[in-house]
Amino acid sequence: MRSFELLRRPPPTASPSRTDLPWLPTSSRRNPRPPGAADKSSHSLSNAAVLRAVKAAGATPRHILSVYSAAARQPGFRHDLPTYQALTYALALRRRFRAVELLLARMPRDGLRPGPALVLPLLRAYSAAGRPPDALLRSCPSPLSDRLFSALIQDLLRSDDLDIAGSLLLSGANLGFSIKSRHYSGLVRAHCDRGAVWSAIEFLDLLATRGSVPDVFFYGSLIRDICRAGSSDAVDAAFEVVDQMKRNGREPDVVIWNTLVHGCAKAGQWGRAEGVVAEMERKGGGAAATDAGTYNALISAIPHRQMVQDGILAFRRMVEKGVSPDVVTFSMLISGLGRAGRVWECNTLLGKMVRLGIPPDIACYKILLSVYRSNAMNDDASAVLLWIKVNEEATAAPRTGKRWKIEKKVTGL
């Protein structure tokens, strides 16, 4: 730093400098060169010469800044973008961060604005030195460009620099930049893809302290992605996200509640799934209103050995709450009862479906076919198999007289 301080002393004959960069001459001394005037100096510096000096092996910060200053004093000279890029990066590697920030602030005077190619290496240098990028962002021309900010985030994610991307997002929030979900969704997804779900949750907590809280749709997508893992740890993380939502003033909707129930079912945690449904029933109505999807998810979470008892209880509970069962509800119950050898009850449920005006679909009939075969009911299995084949043929046939005849045959089965 002592050599840097030496550069702050203006020449004895010069007037005091009023520019942001103390090693440069004032604007009044940088008169433009008259058009067509020849360069009389035999040792004038070009942009290429400045670049060579900056990139030279063993170049010190003092030498780099001296070359920059000498070039800037030349009438009509303007540093170009490659010069600023090489100069700021060289100074950042040598931890002359204040000089970097002053140079960035000066770029607009040369008609230039810092882009991702210039700022990205600086971010990495700041991170390596343990410095937050706040000061670097403040030096960029104000207001901070959304295009530049988004490009930096994307470049960092592509290079797997997740920690730097997170630091950049938090610094942007500190500076009052409006952080949107499109800025941080890629980072959250990258953490989840790498199995670092808790890192994503921690980052969202930090972001919320800066006033940027995701909306319900974003939280719902995150919970869905977490629950796809189907593990107990994933379910724990999903419940933590719901708690975070509530702390941040976001109320989970029925889609999120149903996703939690499905996640519990996938992880084999029927008791936890039942607890979620019970909470939804206590809240009643609004965003927590139960629907057929809620109870279908609950039934799917019931272990096979408990389906005969708990499955029927869940079905009755569903009807008592005024929720209409659908073909998925009946299909799961028929499958569970069939495994237990309760074929008579399977047929009863099938008849109840028809009376309620819920036509069995192909999936339901295939489940019924499996039940009949596993219980050695060959005649019934043959009838169901014929219905499936004819129905599939009708679905594949074009809308012609042939299809009408097939559909009529299906109706008569």
TrEMBL record:
Keyword set, alphabetical order: Repeat
The PPR repeat ranges on this chain: 80-114, 215-252, 253-287, 291-325, 326-360
InterPro entries according to UniProt: PPR_rpt (IPR002885), TPR-like_helical_dom_sf (IPR011990), TPR_mt (IPR057027)
Top-rank taxon: Eukaryota
Region (Disordered): 1-44
Keyword Kinase appears in the UniProt entry: no
Domain Pentatricopeptide repeat-containing protein-mitochondrial: 173-276
Signal sequence, start to end: none
The UniProt record lists the keyword Repeat: yes
Family under the similarity heading: Belongs to the PPR family. P subfamily.
Protein known as: Pentatricopeptide repeat-containing protein-mitochondrial domain-containing protein
Native organism: Musa balbisiana (Banana)
